[in-house]
Amino acid sequence: MLTWSSLKAYFRNRGAIFFSLLVPLMIMGIFGLINFGNSTPSVNIGVVDQAHNRVSSTIISNLKGIKAVKLHTGSLDSEKHELQQGSRDLVAVLPASIGQGSTAITAYYNQGNPQNSQVAIAIMNQFVDRASFAFAGITPALTLDSKPVQSRNLTYVDFLVPGMIALSIMQTGLFGVVFTFVQWKQRGILRRLMATPMRVRDFFFSQLVTRLTTVALQIAVLLAVGYFLLHFHFAGNVLYLLIVGIIGGGIFLAMGLAISGASKSEETAAPIANLISLPLMFLSGIFFSRSSMPEWLQTVTQYSPLTYVSDALRSISVDGASLWAVRGDMLGIFVWLAIAVVLATRLFKWEVV
Amino acid sequence: MSVVTRPRDSGLSTQSQGFAIVVDGLRKRYGSLVAVDGISFRVKEREIFGLLGPNGAGKTTTVEILEGLRGADEGQALVAGIDVRKDPDKVKSMIGVQLQSSAFFDGLNLLELLDMFGALYHRSVDAMAILKKVDLTEKARSTVSKLSGGQKQRFSIATALVNEPQILFLDEPTTGLDPQARRNLWELAESIRSEGRTIVLTTHYMDEAETLCDRVAIMDHGRILAMEPPDTLIQRLLDKGFHKDRVERSANLEDVFLDMTGHGLRES
Predict the structure, then answer these.
(1) What pLDDT does B15 receive?
(2) Residue A13 has pLDDT above 70, yes or no
(3) Looking at CA atoms only, how far is residue B89 from chain A in angstroms?
(4) Which of A254, A352, A6 is CA-nearest to residue B104?
(5) B108 vs A10: CB contact, 8 Å cut-off?
């Protein structure tokens, strides 16, 4: 009964719902749509056709067929201008004499943008070699047959969504608890309840159920939005996701309780909660992979509770991992849960003494 | 169905001898500060017993010990025949407590809150009937934050009545209330007592102690200085030769206020 009252009271608090659901949704939307991840690289190649014959048009249409190339055509002056502007990485001039004997194709490239121009030059070289062999009627001794290895087309969204879910779990756990409990303690709500025969464990239990229900709902909503709106590739088991999410949620709920126990008011509690939440948010592989961090930082952040949760969620969602497969992360999660619970029981006080 | 019931036969142990509360040599220390310094008193059944004194006198600490909210260092306290130091939970189930600064979950309305409190005592309650008793039926579906000061205190008392307690503890119930609300609350206290319950009241309003209490214990620095009915105390003072310089008229400004703003005890 206490649980039911607690659930009702929580969900009527519109502010709490707003922050726990809306903020992660917004972040996901923004990041998902902007797509900070790698987009398919492409180079801009300009072709100046001074021959206007069949050879040159064949060259042009073949170039167009290369996937990594965005082809533009134009006069020498306009293309060189575009090159200077940076809109072209390379400009190739097909001289009027093309197709008759040995011809040199002049390629102008942008020195200021080495990455893209090198790619463009490499493409052109390859193209020119092949074309030369073809024109000469020679079958080259060696050919390169490239086959793509990655069968799945993973995007940044696939990286982001599990991380977002983990993030929202942390936010709910920390801030959801901190703001309500500290207020309650301050305002004597908890004290009034202690004057009744209510047992402490019943109270905690009802709060736990309420918060974890919220976590489960959040996971469901974020997953649905990611799947339907952002083309998140979900290859895993929703149940496993929920289990990991809820246990992980327990960590942050307990931490939130520990913080509210130790704080007299929101003014002290909020900074502590932020002090924990912000570093974790940026260092646990939520927005970008931890592999881009320096070695020492990678080792340290490996043990963060949020890292364990988001890695586990990601493995489950993207690799379709089973609970057993993520047991390493689960171990980390359980250890943190134990630590957090111990802290909470030690630090939580019912009233501002 | 009547909500006014006599409290169950408490089955007070012979030690209590028909007293609702027996306190003997109670002591509580906070570090070097002695909050309660070896006090003893007895509260009769069905009386309104007042603890009067300035802030810091130790009255709140005493009451908190009796309510099972705080531990004592020494002494004995029997509440409704039960040793509160040994079995505070049992005591809690038999008393009602109205705390000075009570607050409740914002997301629930009055009826839901009363149901919730009832559940804590493992009882189903007739919430509307309790609200009727404290005259808050129109606000049944409102939340506590929307109530006026006087209404909040009345609701606070309502939550204390959920388990039909034998003993009700009221901690400074009219602090911050206007004259009409105070009168209102005093009437409520009287009606509760007439149901056969015992009330322990802490206050620093002298007129409240005078009007409501059958007996008053005056406390200061953790000790009880006197414990008599108010009239007895006043008479004793007069007998000592006390004389007020200013002539007391039989009406004061408060009476004027009440007369002009209406006997109907309006409250927002």
Answers:
(1) 53
(2) no
(3) 5
(4) A6
(5) no
CB within 8 Å: B93 and A9: no
Contacts of A193 in chain B (CB under 8 A): 120
Q: pLDDT tens digits for A304-348?
A: 888 888 888 888 887 777 778 888 888 888 999 899 888 887 877
Q: Inter-chain contact B119–A1, Cβ cutoff 8 Å?
A: yes
User: A86 is written with which tokens?
Assistant: 């940076």
For the stretch B24-70, pLDDT in tens is 999 999 888 888 989 999 999 999 999 988 878 888 889 989 998 88
DSSP codes joined into one string, A227-258: HHHH-----S-HHHHHHHHHHHHHHHHHHHHH
Confidence bin at B170 (pLDDT 50/70/90): very high
Is the Cβ–Cβ distance between B96 and B162 less than 8 Å?
yes
Q: How many CA atoms lie within 13 A of A183 on its CB side?
A: 10
At residue B256's C-alpha, the angle toward residues B254 and B258, to 5°, is 70
| Most confident among A113-127, A188-202, B90-104, B155-169 (mean pLDDT) | B155-169
Query: Cα A115 vs. chain centroid, distance in angstroms?
Result: 25
Query: What local confidence, expressed as pLDDT, does residue A179 receive?
Result: 74
Using CA coordinates, name the residue in chain B closest to A16.
B107
- Cβ of A181: how many Cβ atoms within 10 Å? 21
Sheet architecture: strand order including B19-30: B33-44, B19-30, B74-79, B82-83
Q: Which residue segments constitute the domains of chain B, with CATH numbers given?
A: 19-245+252-260 (3.40.50.300)
Q: What is the pLDDT of residue B22?
A: 92
Residues 6+ positions from B144 with CB-CB distance below 8 Å: B103, B104, B106, B110, B113, B152, B155
Mean pLDDT taken over chain A:
79
Q: Which of A8, A14, A192 should we substitute to test contact with B (largest number of B Cβ atoms within 10 Å)?
A: A192
Domains of chain A: 2-36+155-347 (no CATH), 43-136 (3.40.1710.10)
ipTM: 0.78
A8 → closest Cβ in B90, B101, B112: B112
Rounded CA separation A288/A160 (Å): 8
Write down the residue that tokens 């602090």 correspond to: B175
Longest Cα–Cα distance of chain B, Å, equals 58
Q: Taking the CA of residue B262 as centre, how many other CA atoms within 13 Å lie in the half-sphere pointing to its CB?
A: 5
Question: Which residues does chain B have within 8 Å of residue A207's beta carbon, measured at their own beta carbons?
Answer: none
Compare CB distances from A195 to B67, B105, B115 and report the shortest one's residue. B67
- Alpha-carbon span B84 to B161, nearest angstrom: 20
Q: How far apart, in whole angstroms, are the C-alpha atoms of residue A255 and residue A174?
A: 7
- CA quadruple A62, A67, A68, A70: dihedral sign: positive
